[in-house]
Amino acid sequence: MLVHYKLFRAEHIIQDSTYTWLIGNFSILQLWHGNGFKNSALLDTTNAPKKLVLLRKAYKQYRMISAASDAHQELMIRSFENENVAITGSPKNDVFFDDAAVFQEIKVRYGLDKFDKIYAYTPTFRDKGAFEPFNVQFWGLLNDWLEGNNIAFVVKKHPWDKTLKVPDQYKNILDLSDRIDDSQELMLISDLLISDYSAIVTDFAITGKPIIYYFHDYDNYTKMRSFYYDLKTVLPGPFIYDGETLLTYLKDLSWFTTPAYQLEFQKFLKTFHTYMDGDSSKRVLEEMKKLSSGTKKQFS
Questions:
Q1: DSSP string computed for 103-137
Q2: Residue 61: CA count within 13 A, CB half-sphere
Q3: CA 17 – CA 24 distance, rounded (Å)
Q4: 139-197, pLDDT tens digit by residue?
Q5: What's the pLDDT tens digit per position in 263-279?
Q6: Superfamily classification of domain 2-89+277-293
Q7: What is the pTM of this model?
Q8: Fold of 99-272
Q9: What does the domain layout of the chain look like in residue ranges?
């Protein structure tokens, strides 16, 4: 009852996902949870017709939707059928501009401070079917190389993932999915990111560190989900499809520093981020003030 009482009295409610059950005379500020590639909200082709009716009703309540760039703003307008989209940057990414001392504290908390480097693997969930990105032989070869170079390979599974199995017999391969609630913390301390179709790569790109796109099930996955973009056009790569090639790219990161790659990386970064200054939260606050003062359009 206390939660409902607070909702009824609230002037603003901030969300990062969709809630169709909220009732009250308040402004909803939608920060959304990812600046990614998969069609979402009303453009998500997996939504049933009845759900779309509920979503359209909910989205009409949005007084401000946060976007990270011009391209993202356009997609948010289409996805929510709502024009109240402001380019503020994502507040959750302000943490990348914190003092470096914070990063060391995170390493200590998760027992990762003994490693020279941390490589993160953060795949998105699969809607159906088994998810086995690596075979038994690869896990062994990977750990041998990690141990020889004092590198931790940290796995952070998507909260909806139910099938990815990570072996627990290796010292340098660590599944911390149940310990790390906030993926942003892992990104802060990681020296390299391996992911696939997840929006997490656009956040991590702000760090300027290497990203590898592991697309071992690309053909099957793109049949299950629809996308805003042609991934192989908008992403800078490299696109890897098997464990052997992945290990080769991990052992030699010279591809990341080539002028040709850096040109594509910077193009990718500018497409998804207008601001990279740590002030996105301040810009969201300014939008909230406009709503409170009545200077901003109240309804879409």
A1: HHHHHHHTT-TTSSEEEEE-PPP-SSS----S-HH
A2: 22
A3: 18
A4: 999 999 999 999 999 999 998 888 889 999 999 999 999 999 889 999 999 999 999 99
A5: 999 999 999 999 999 99
A6: CDP-glycerol glycerophosphotransferase, N-terminal domain (3.40.50.11820)
A7: 0.89
A8: Rossmann fold (3.40.50)
A9: 2-89+277-293, 99-272
